[in-house]
Amino acid sequence: MVLHKRMTKQYQLYTDRLKAAAKSVIRWPGRYWHRGWWQKTVSVFVILIALCIGTMYGIAVWYQQSQKGKPTTLGVTFVADYATSLGLDPHQTLLAILNGLHVKHLRLVSYWNDIEPSPGQYNFSELDWEMSQAKAHGATVTLSIGLRQPRWPECHPPSWVNTAGPENTWEPQLDAFITQVVNRYKNNPALQSYQLENEFFNTFGGCNNYDRNRLNSELALVKKLDPTHPVIITRSDNYAGFSLRKPLPDIIGISVYRHVWTTTGVTGYFTYPFPSWYYAFLAGAQQLLTGKPSIIHELQAEPWPPNGQTITQTSLAVQNKTFNPQIFESTSKFAQQTGIKTVYYWGAEYWYYRMVKLHDPSVWNEAKTIFAKQ
Question: What is the pTM assigned to this prediction?
Answer without folding.
Answer: 0.88
